[in-house]
Amino acid sequence: MKRTIWSTLAVLVLFVAWYIAADRVTPFTGNARVKAIATYIVPQVSGVVTEVLVENGQIVAAGDVLARIDARPYEIDKLRAEADLELATQDVGASSAQVRAAQAALTREQSDLDAMRLQTERIFSLERKGLVAISKGDDARKEIANAIANKDNALADLERAKQQLGVDGQDNPKIQKALAALADAELNLEWTVLRAPSFGVVSNLLIAPGTYAHSGRELLTFLDATDIWIEAYLSENNLGNAQIGSPVDIVLDMHPGKIVRGKIESFSFGVSVSGGDAVGQLASAPSSKGFLREPEHFPVRIIMPGYEVGNENDDIRMQLNGQADIIMYLSDNVVLNAIGRAYIRLVSILTYAY
Q: CB-hemisphere CA count at 13 Å for 128?
């Protein structure tokens, strides 16, 4: 009887010692989720949606047209602005044809530059993290330099066209007002076409032709597939020895039995205690209740080398906010690391059941 008691006590002591050590050396948690940037496509102009060119869950490339808003009212505005410019230039005995063409070209080049900046900034972000080759970043810099040059050339063409209006026409307030109105009409017409900001997936599609699009209101949900990570919440005690680059094993609920290698990319050095979790606010850990006081949890961003950018041909598939289990290896302790690997292997098998 005494031997049984002492054996049980010894096992309990060993377990407590392992748990305390593992909490610092091989911390693990099931409070982890797949994350990506969810971008809401917000139209800049209002109108009836005439075309929806994508389906729910469709993979799209940067610049692909997602939907079109009825352009007729904005085409009429453009014609009106062109007519006003023609009247203004006639007052000084000149023609507005070259100015109109130059203004239209400038609007197109400015729109292309804005789209290029958005796309290349995502590439630069991945380049800074070491997730894309430097050559790809160099290509992006060349593309944006070309776009800036094209926009500058278009602006110079517009200035030359203005100069041809003569001294009286170039600085005429009526002409300046008409030019501003034409530029605004051209821009609004460009905004009737909604495009994908990057490579990604259209999600939760709830619109069809006939839907009314309100300027400044979300119309489509777009998931950026160029930057995917795991967000794991761990206690302060867990993170005492964690470093950027520390190895991590990950089990995704969508792929039971499979362990994916990862590493710590960054830490969030603050969380909200009020439950707010939105753009511009501190991260907020999902609440959980237990017998003892719950320690504060902080988000850790984990990347999976080889899977940072979504690809429909990858051997694993991930969904935004899909659940995961992770374990970190924060030392060279052979025994604790071996126990940790055995544990995460067991978790990966049990994932088949839940």
A: 7
One domain for residues 64 and 76: no
Looking at the DSSP bridge assignments, the partners of residue 220 are 41
Whether the Cβ atoms of residue 255 and residue 339 lie closer than 8 Å to each other: no
Residue 206 in any domain: the answer is yes
How far is residue 336's CA from residue 62's CA, in Å, rounded to a whole number?
Answer: 45
* Adjacent-strand bridge partners of 327: 28, 249
C-alpha span between 50 and 319 (Å, rounded): 30
The 10s digit of each residue's pLDDT in 186-244 is 999 999 999 998 889 999 999 999 999 999 999 999 998 888 899 999 988 888 888 99
- Using an 8 Å Cβ cutoff, are 50 and 211 in contact? no
Pairing state between β 247-252 and 200-203: unpaired
Name the 3-class secondary structure at 11: helix
Do residues 116 and 62 lie in contact, with contact meaning Cβ atoms separated by under 8 Å? no
Provide the residue range defining the domain that includes 327. Answer: 26-35+228-353
191, amino acid identity: W
**pTM for the full predicted model:** 0.71
Rounded to 5°, angle at Cα 82 from 79 and 85: 155
How many domains, in total, are found in the chain? 3
Q: What one-character DSSP code corresponds to residue 129? A: T
Instruction: Give the domain CATH number at 54.
Output: 2.40.50.100
